[in-house]
Amino acid sequence: MKIKTNFTLEKIPDQYGCNAPSSQQFHGINQHSFPFEVVAIPADAHYLSWTLIDYDTVPMIGFAWIHWLLADYPVSASQVTIDADLSQTTATAQGQNSMRSIVTILRHPLWRVTEFGQNLTTRYSGPRPRGGQHRLRLTVYATRQPLHLEPGFQLNQLMNSVDNELVEQASLNLTYERESK
Predict the structure, then answer these.
(1) Are 18 and 127 in contact (CB under 8 A)?
(2) Would strands 36-39 and 2-4 be described as parallel, antiparallel, or unpaired?
(3) CA distance linking residue 72 with residue 123, whole number of Å
């Protein structure tokens, strides 16, 4: 199994991160997820789940930043194209990103109890590094059966449930850099 993009040098295009026009962002967050393909999916895999995590945030905030979690995307062929903006259009369960973290709760304590906050914390959250280039790791897990995770699931729930059904996994390192203004 392999993940493919049409990005130059595996750099996430600006339209899917903080360099996009502010009109494309929701409270400063770009929720327009990027497209990618998964090819050579094993025949006994019927669902895909994935994580998009920025490990370059560890030295700055003490933990890896979760940008996107999705579980149980159905597949019936050996390859699938994940369309741009899937995060906002799919009914497939998405997990909590790091906008739900203590960092955000301290800055915006009421977000977690509003529909506004739920929208920000359970969909793709485009990269917005404070400075420099960050590497983000997209990992796709192919499973036999669905994981049956509820919308708003946590990363640990995904990781604990994927092992029992895992057929194969693939990862791809991507980069993103904030424009200096």
Answers:
(1) yes
(2) antiparallel
(3) 15
For residue 111, what pLDDT band results from cuts at 50, 70 and 90?
low
- Give residue-wise pLDDT tens across range 69-85: 999 999 999 999 999 99
Judge whether residue 113 has pLDDT over 60. no
pTM of the model: 0.91
Q: How far apart are CA 40 and CA 80, in angstroms?
A: 9
Q: Which of 45, 144, 151 is nearest to 93 (CA)?
A: 151
Instruction: Give the integer Cα–Cα distance in Å for 130 and 140.
Output: 26
DSSP bridge pairs for 65: 54
User: CA separation (Å) from 56 to 65, 157, 181?
Assistant: 8, 23, 22
Pairwise CA distance, residues 49 & 7, whole Å: 21
